[in-house]
Amino acid sequence: MSELRLQTRNLTRAFPGGAGVHGVDLDVTAGQIHALVGLNGAGKTTLMRLLLGMLRPDSGAVRLGGCALGEAGAATWARVGHLVGHPLAYPELDAESNLTVAARMRGVPRPRIPAMVARALAELDLEQYARVRTRVLSSGNRQRLGVAGALQHDPDLVVLDEPTNALDPAGVLLVREALLRRAHAGAGVLVSSHHLDEVARIAHRITVVNRGRTIGTLDPEGVEIERAFFALVHADDERRKGCTQPSRPR
Ligand SMILES: Nc1ncnc2c1ncn2[C@@H]1O[C@H](COP(=O)(O)OP(=O)(O)OP(=O)(O)O)[C@@H](O)[C@H]1O
Fold first, then answer.
1. With CB atoms 3.0 to 4.6 Å apart as the test, which of 33, 63, 75, 209 could cross-link to 189 if both were Cys?
2. Which InterPro entries does this entry report, sorted A to Z (predicted)?
3. How many domains would you assign to the chain?
4. Do 65 and 24 have their domain in common?
5. What is d(CA 37, CA 165) in angstroms, rounded to the nearest whole number?
6. pTM of the prediction?
7. 20 lines ligand 1 (CB under 6 A)
């Protein structure tokens, strides 16, 4: 069986009013691209923030590699690459310097950093922006830089929230290839997206999230993936409506 890179069990964080994430079990194994899909507000970002320790759960467990989240030390985190929310970059530093800082924060030995950064700039086609301050980059190029920073150290676990949102078609292709390369090399990849077709091209497993719960999976090889997605979501909505409707008086 493939090695587990990430596991959540019964992960729960409820926000006032009931939104949030409720009882989520998720596995990401080595060599696998696992996609999360769901409507706006379904809970994908909240789930990713929980499993990266950016948000405290009400209950449930997360394991990164072999470690419980609360026990994960610097060595475990150095093997994780993530981009959730806005790409973190110092606006006054150029792209190359930002990638250098990101590599240092991951504990990459200094002599290895220049070649790693050069490879990352090439992989996301950012070489022409190596000496350009990040604050003047377009949002798409800033997103490319964020993805480059998350992937450059070849992490064992990659967590990316909508990494292709602001990208042009060339950028989408580059990110797709970069993720496939990492999975092929043995990383576990968790990625969220709204683009079902895009996800179907690269994902080995697609989990549908609806109103804070995982409600089923989609077959990446399946035809009419959109239809299958909406069928799952509507069935879940109907089931919940049935649960919350008051019983008829006899
Ligand atoms: N800090 C918070 N306090 C209260 N509610 C929150 C908080 N963060 C998220 N929510 C709510 O939790 C739900 C899930 O939000 P989340 O951002 O995880 O969804 P998403 O699936 O990533 O959506 P999108 O596809 O639009 O990015 C939403 O209803 C959101 O309004």
1. 33
2. AAA+_ATPase (IPR003593), ABC_transporter-like_ATP-bd (IPR003439), ABC_transporter-like_CS (IPR017871), P-loop_NTPase (IPR027417)
3. 2
4. yes
5. 13
6. 0.94
7. yes
